[in-house]
Amino acid sequence: MTKYTLYNRPGSGGFAVEAALTLADQPFDFIDVGNKPGDKMPDHFRAINPWGQVPALILPDETLMTETGAILTYLAGAHPEAGLSPVPWTPAHGTFLRWMTFLGANIYEAILHDGYPARFTDDPDGVENVKTAALKRCHEGLGVLEDAIGANGWLQDEMSVADLYLAMLFIWCKKREDRPKCEALTHRIAAHPVIAPIWRRNFDHRPGVKWGR
């Protein structure tokens, strides 16, 4: 293999990976797993990722990577010339790792609890409580990020894949009010000249806000 292979479905977490690969000017093949959210993953994909979640990225040496945050962090480190994160082993990179982990462990996980509540309780009567708690948790987590966004409109001194990750998760969170800096950051990501075509292909089908314009 001489390039990456990205397994995803439109509108899913691989958006941020596709955007990062494009920003880094890296060739890749895109393989649509061919199902819709909530549907059972096809067997051919479970053979690649037994956990059954997208995205999955095959590296040029055929190593498999899963988990959006891990993939984004890897790509930023593998292609430093693209400026997708602060320089590794600097204090700024430590802050970057903090936000990447926070986004995955708290915001993404809360969104999954809201979207797939039955995965997280054995009590059929508890599903709505899982959703309610998840929305509250997501909104609170966005509040932490809201306070972290600087006067320049990014989480750190320059745009990084952490901002890509935040923008994607922000539009998935159903409770977004009172987070104007997160909203403005998302519009900036969606309007970025390199990212905009990828964003529109993944998210313009969603009702409501047309991000970036």
Short description, anyone?
This protein is an alpha+beta fold. Helices cover about 50% and strands about 10% of the residues.
Report strand %. Answer: 5-15%
What is the H/E order?
EHEHEEHHHHHH
CATH topology of the largest domain: Glutathione S-transferase Yfyf (Class Pi), Chain A, domain 2
Mean pLDDT, nearest integer? 94
As laid out across the biggest beta sheet, the strand order is 2-1-3-4
By helix and strand content, what is the structural category? alpha+beta
Number of helices: 8
Number of domains: 2
Description:
With 213 residues, this protein is of the alpha+beta class. It folds into two domains: 4-82, Glutaredoxin; 91-192, Glutathione S-transferase Yfyf (Class Pi), Chain A, domain 2. Helices cover 49% and strands 8% of the residues. The chain contains eight helices and four strands, in the order E-H-E-H-E-E-H-H-H-H-H-H. A four-stranded mixed beta sheet has the order 2-1-3-4, covered by helices on one side. The longest helix is centred in the middle third of the chain and has 25 residues, at 91-115. It is globular. The protein starts with a strand and ends in a 10-residue tail after the last helix. The model has no long low-confidence stretch (mean pLDDT 94).
